[in-house]
Amino acid sequence: MSNLKLTTKFHIPPSFKRVVARPRLLEKLNAGLQDNVKLILISAPPGYGKTTLVSEWILNLKASSEIEIPKFAWLSLDEADNDIVRFVQYIFGALQQADEFLGRQVQSQLDFPNQLDVPNLMDTLLNDLSELRSKLVFILDDFHVISNLEIYQFFEYILDHLPVNTHLVLTTRADPQLPLARLRARRQMIEVRARDLRFSSDEARDFFGLASIPLAAKTLRSIDERTEGWVAGLQLAALALENQSDPVAFVESFHGSHRYILDYLAEEVIQAQNEEIRAFLTQTSLLDHFNADLSNAVTLRDDSQDIINWLEQSNMFIIPLDDNRHWYRYHHLFAEFLISHLQHTRADDLPILHRRAAEWYQANHYPEEALKHAFSVQDDRYVSRLVIDNWRRIYHKGRLDTAVQWLETLPGDLLHQSPPLGVAYCWTLFIRGEYDRIGLYLDDIEQAFTRMVETGELPIDHPEYNIIDHQVILLRGIVMRHQGAVNATITAIEQLLPKIEELRESLGQTYVDMGLTACYSQLGYAYAAINEYDRADDYLSRVSLHARNCGNFFSLAHATIAWVKICLEQGRVEQAEKICRHELALTQNPEYSDYPAFCLIQLALADVLTVRQSWDEAESLLSQGLEMAKKCGHKYYLAQGYLIAARFHHVLGNPRQVQDDIQKAERIAESIHNRFLDEAIAQAKNALKNQAVLVQPLVEPLSERELDVLRLICLGKSNQEIADELFLALNTVKRHANNLYSKLGVNRRAQAILEARRLGLV
Fold first, then answer.
1. What's the chain's average pLDDT?
2. What's the sign of the alpha-carbon dihedral 703, 707, 709, 710?
3. Which end of the chain has fewer beta carbons closer than 10 Å to its terminal beta carbon, N or C?
């Protein structure tokens, strides 16, 4: 999910110019504030003026000198808000419009939403609300679109513990699944229903008077009888009557339920407009919200602002969404009619209009809205390209949750049949550590790729050919490495390196940087897997430059944590710390500070600082890294983080927490089936098993691998025997031995054994 919020959802709709005064309803709402009720429920079918009533009430409260003026927060809901993460983000976003203090303590959670701790957020919200010094009125408009049970549970908890200074106002077409009976019994709720919202005869007369439509009493009674005081029906009737020479005959001609009256009157209103206005209304009806620039793009006009101004002046069911009157929407019922009208009269235009909307949203950096319209175009190639363009941007930032959401909501079998989409999805599987699933997609991707080449759909001289070909080679290498065929992985990727370099002129430096970032990373992991640490060190050290150039911060973080692990195993603690701090310095740039990918480097640095006995900073970074990994869906690295936490808690002498950390890592391992993670857990359990807590009294502590070598030296093992037992190269054992001699301040084996025993290291 994107973190970009539509601020128009937070704006209180401004009052219409022609609004009938409804003091009886305003007094009822005021009484709710004075009686400190928790919930004000405004429930009625569509078209009864629920939103207009609340807007008028707020305007009256702000102008009142008799009561304390409360703070107001407004949230206009839509179907997309049924996702609990998005819903909570918008709840806090709306509240922060009223008071920036609300939710400040949990802003980091809100910025990175995957796996939010919703109970914690609820308690934080309630605590923040209780500390407000003024009343707060929080309006949730169109609450009927919410169907997610988890959201209802969220609201029930909030209502049960809502402080006395806060009042929730829900406008809805249907009663929500909340404990309304309990709230009624406790006098904690007031209700405004359809019977309250219906215009009385006097209010209907005032309405037509404001519209400058003089009607005889009999005609007015007929309208009132047919609409039953239904505000939308009266408003449409007023628009239709403006063009009728015989109002009496017109009123007598429409009848039936509200739905039929709406369709009839809306048709009359549409037909009364000139062709230019009709076209504009129907073409823009598919937009949830619009401004002049977007409208121009969809309608291919250049005067949309003039038309919008005219529609607003004519009270043509258009609602401003901000104080500057930049964004607008149509009344929901009117929009429904317009869309239905468009589907029946110009259905062939719909894909064209949706594509224009998608292109505008994409060009103006609204990716979620762009994709919403793109899915309606019914053009798999276009949808694929749009998803790929947006996916790459967020993938490199490490925003896994949004990438997965887009890819997994694609229609049909696109992930298997579209090589670009399939490749994108495989990289999300790689991030999640689900390496065994990558192979299930690669076979289909390669078949589809081959078919596209054979049919001429993708010529081999097309840039996309090389991009897909190289990505498949890299992904196949990951699968082979996971299956134990590490040498085959190395061969395939080393052969790929010169091919990428050759494309510098045709595809540009950014592509080369992206390709080299991936190749160097995978080669580093592969050489590390066969204990050729010098080669692994060499390749991983090259990643940072290219990853920074192309903005692939996920790969940067991924390679950093692997490189640091090698440094620690070889006793290069200072270098490991320097690497981490160099990369984390990027987060000082506000543009990068909230990138989730950097949680991996925080975890790596926590591991380094544990070795260096910098307990406080290690604990802080460990907490930050784990929290971020939870939110961003990095399961594989969350598990690695728990193993780092286990080492940290082991050193501090907390065996119960160590066991809990390892169990958390094991639960993740059960869900993703990653061989490397299984091995890491086994190694951690073996290293920690029956070990006493060890606090090293050294200026530069020995690394875990150096301790392993030292223990075997004390057992009288030769360097070759140590190499065989630890599955290390002989030169690597010699390097570890020299490092630990230096740290112990000795020159020979015998001295090392004596010093180790004196210090209690073995």
1. 84
2. positive
3. C
Exposure letters 608-617 (e unless 16+ CB within 10 A, then b): bbbbeebeee
Comparing CA positions, the residue from 634, 626, 571, 586 lying closest to residue 603 is: 626
Name beta bridge partners: 137.
72, 167
Structure tokens at 631: 């939110």
Cα–Cα distance, 160 to 183 (Å, whole number): 9
The per-residue pLDDT for 206 is 81
Look up residue 170 and give its DSSP letter. E
**φ/ψ (deg, to 5) at 97:** -70, -30
Per the structure block, which two tokens stand in for 55? 């807007």
What dihedral angle (degrees, nearest 10) is formed by the CA atoms of 106, 110, 116, 122?
A: 50
User: How many Cβ atoms sit within 10 Å of the Cβ of residue 267?
Assistant: 15
d(CA 608, CA 616): 13
Give percent of the chain with pLDDT exceeding 70.
91
- Answer whether residue 624 shows pLDDT above 80: yes
Under 8 Å between Cβ of 756 and 714: yes
Query: Distance between CA 653 and CA 658 in Å, rounded?
Result: 9
**Is the torsion defined by CA of 356, 359, 360, 366 positive or negative?**
positive
Q: Give the chain's length.
A: 762
Task: Specify the pLDDT at position 105.
Answer: 75
- The one-letter amino acid code at 470 reads H
Q: What would the two tokens of residue 170 be?
A: 């829900």
What is each CA distance from 217 to 93, 223, 244, in whole angstroms? Answer: 49, 10, 17
**Strand pairing partners for 71?**
136
- pLDDT-derived band at 689, boundaries 50, 70, 90: low
Mean pLDDT of 705-721: 86
How far lies 730's CA from each of 393, 527, 528, in Å? Answer: 44, 16, 15
Q: How far is CA 391 from CA 383, 422, 462, in A?
A: 12, 12, 21
Beta bridge partners of 167: 137
On whether the CB atoms of residues 236 and 265 are closer than 8 A, the answer is: yes
Q: What is the pLDDT of residues 301-337, one digit of tens each?
A: 999 999 998 887 666 778 788 877 889 988 776 787 7
- What is the pLDDT, as a whole number, of residue 693? 46
Kind of pairing between the strands at 318-320 and 328-330: antiparallel
Q: Which two three-digit tokens encode residue 724?
A: 């065989």
Rg (CA), the chain: 33
What's the confidence (pLDDT) of residue 505?
84
State whether residue 511 is helix, strand or coil.
helix
Q: What distance in Å separates the CA atoms of residue 543 and residue 552, rounded to the nearest whole number?
A: 10
Residue the block writes with tokens 């919403």: 372
Beta carbons of 732 and 723 less than 8 angstroms apart:
yes
At residue 39, φ and ψ (nearest 5 deg) are: -130, 130
For 434-445, how does the pLDDT look when each residue is reduced to its tens digit (9 = 90+)? 888 888 889 888
Q: What does DSSP assign to residue 290?
A: B
Smallest CA-to-CA distance from 493 within 458, 519, 465 is with 519
Return the pLDDT at 1: 39
Q: Would you say the C-alpha torsion 407, 409, 411, 412 has a positive or negative sign?
A: positive
Tell whether the model's pLDDT for residue 166 goes beyond 90. Answer: yes
Which CA distances in Å does 665 have to 96, 327, 644, 660? 36, 48, 10, 9
Q: How many CA atoms lie within 13 A of 547 on its CB side?
A: 27
* Residues in contact with 316: Cβ distance below 8 Å, sequence separation at least 6, in sequence order: 239, 269, 281
d(CA 647, CA 669): 18
Q: Would you list the DSSP string of 686-719?
A: HHHTTPPP----SSSPPPHHHHHHHHHHHTT--H
CA 716 to chain centre: 56
Cα angle, residue 680 at apex, residues 481 and 471 outer, rounded to 5° = 30
Tracing tokens 């049909």 back to the chain, one arrives at: 412
